Structure formats: C-alpha cells, structure tokens
Amino acid sequence: MVYSKEEVSNWIEDLHLSTWGPTTIDWNEKVHRVHISVEYGRSEEVRKEIEKSVQSEIDNETTDKDNAQDFLDHLYVTDYMVED
Questions:
Q1: Which of 2, 20, 29, 61 has the most CB atoms around its CB within 10 Å?
Q2: Cα(28)–Cα(7) distance, rounded to whole angstroms?
Q3: Distance CA 43, CA 39 (A)
Q4: Domain extents for the chain?
Q5: End-to-end Cα, the chain, rounded Å
C-alpha cells in the first residue's frame, strides 16, 4: 500500500466522495478502511459511482491502478437510516 491517510483523505475530497454522506477514514499500517454512510437504499448505487470515479482516475493516469484497487478493496459503503 503506497497511499498515506493524508493522500486518501485528499483523494476523497478531490473526487467529492465525501458528499455522499458521513465519511470515516481509518488508514494506517495495520488498518486500511474507508467507510462512507449514505442515504438508506443507495449504497449499491453510490459504490458504483465511486468505482466509476476511480476508474476515470486510472484511465486518465492520475492515480496508480494498484493503489486505486487497494482503495476499492478497503472501501465500505453502507446505508444509514434517518431517525424520525
């Protein structure tokens, strides 16, 4: 893994991935995890949008393919329910 936590944080901001919902980044030598919570029922849709953004970065050669895959392997997109 080449990305640092700061690089992952910056990348998430650059791609506007944090606009989907609350974002938690746990990224160190032992744990690589990015968790994005989105509106109930939208996690699959958002995951696909993020994958498209990442693929675009790879296609434009603005990120390393292996690092991008590592990011996706450690990306968790889940639904959250809004309380009444």
A1: 20
A2: 12
A3: 7
A4: 5-80
A5: 41
For 6-63, the three-class secondary structure string (H helix, E strand, C coil) is: HHHHHHHHHCCHHHHCCEEEEECCCCEEEEEEEECCCHHHHHHHHHHHHHHHHHCCCC
How many angstroms separate the CA atoms of 41 and 50, rounded? 16
pLDDT, tens only, 11-47: 778 878 778 778 888 877 777 888 888 888 888 998 9
Q: What is the pLDDT of residue 44?
A: 93
Q: Are the CB atoms for 11 and 5 separated by under 8 Å?
A: no
The tens digit of pLDDT for each residue in 3-17 reads: 778 887 887 788 787
At 65 the pLDDT is 92
Residue of 62, 79, 77 lying closest to 24 (CA atoms): 77
The pairing of strands 75-80 and 32-39 is: parallel
